[in-house]
Amino acid sequence: MSDNLALVDRELLPLLDRLGPAALDGTLLDAARAERAGPPGMVDKLPVETIARHIPGMPGDPEVRVLVSRPKVVSSAPMPAILHIHGGGFVMGTADRFLPLLRKWADDLNCVVISVDYRLSPETPFPGPLDDCYAALVWAVANAAALDIDAGRIGVAGESAGGGLAAGLALLVRQRSGPRLAFQNLQYPMLDDRTGPDSPRNPVTGDYVWTREMNVFGWQSFLGTAPGAKGISPFAAPARAGDLSDLPPAYIGVGTLDLFLDEDVDYALRMIRARVPVELDIFPGAFHAFELEPRAGVTRRSMARRTEAMRRAMARED
Q1: Among the four given CATH numbers 3.90.1700.10, 3.10.129.10, 3.30.930.10, 3.40.50.1820, the one describing domain 3-314
Q2: Model confidence over 65-111: pLDDT tens digits?
Q3: In a 3-state reduction of DSSP, which class is residue 255?
Q4: Residue 90's CB: how many other CB atoms inside 10 A?
Q5: What's the pLDDT at 40?
Q6: CB count, 10 Å around CB of 145?
Q7: Which amino acids are annotated catalytic?
């Protein structure tokens, strides 16, 4: 453990013990994927139904699997919707692993949650994963009536690499004049391929769960080229975007020990300067993916803040 262990929220220390040393590369990827595959084995009793669908991909791409979670009691009016994009460093993770959270959102917010099982890298590098997310958004809008959702109240949410894809999707929608997003809800988003061992170092970030070395592997897999190179698309690495105006209102949450702290705060400030409404929460003593410890007070606070931000963003304007 590093000298920064004293800065970790005490309630998160058991999580570090369970997870062990942080490492990921090509030799460890299959095992990491297997550990994070499939449903988490938790059964809830929420009045929510979840259905897996296979929807059309972008032209020339395969079908995209999505999980649609919705309240069993149909609302009298079309519901808002969340397009969810899971995390996993672009190289691992599934929508199924997030089902407890997605179903809770559907119940708490009385909304439809559509989670995208986008193709993973390095097998499918950029733009494939982002194209899958865009295809899911287009499908949701085209099928709004059948899904009983309000096409004007669809927002995007994601964690880590999923937060980066969500931010990239917001930029792509703006560029293509595509379906308008009501909000972007980004939890410790992975935004900048230039964050690595050779970048200016914040001495308290990147020690736990997701390190600088792991970040290089994730970006290399996603980009298909060395991170930090010239000409990287801002749709792949949103921190590269020169213009952040006319983006949907944003919520960003990140911990003080997270590797992505600096890039997330910088992105929030740049959106604020571009007149985008931004809510930024920074959680003391929290490292990347700290919400894997659900009993910690900081996790409960983060979940509540994030959920309320979406509730406000999805509120109907009368």
Answers
A1: 3.40.50.1820
A2: 999 999 998 778 999 999 999 999 999 999 999 999 999 999 999 99
A3: strand
A4: 28
A5: 66
A6: 9
A7: 160, 258, 288
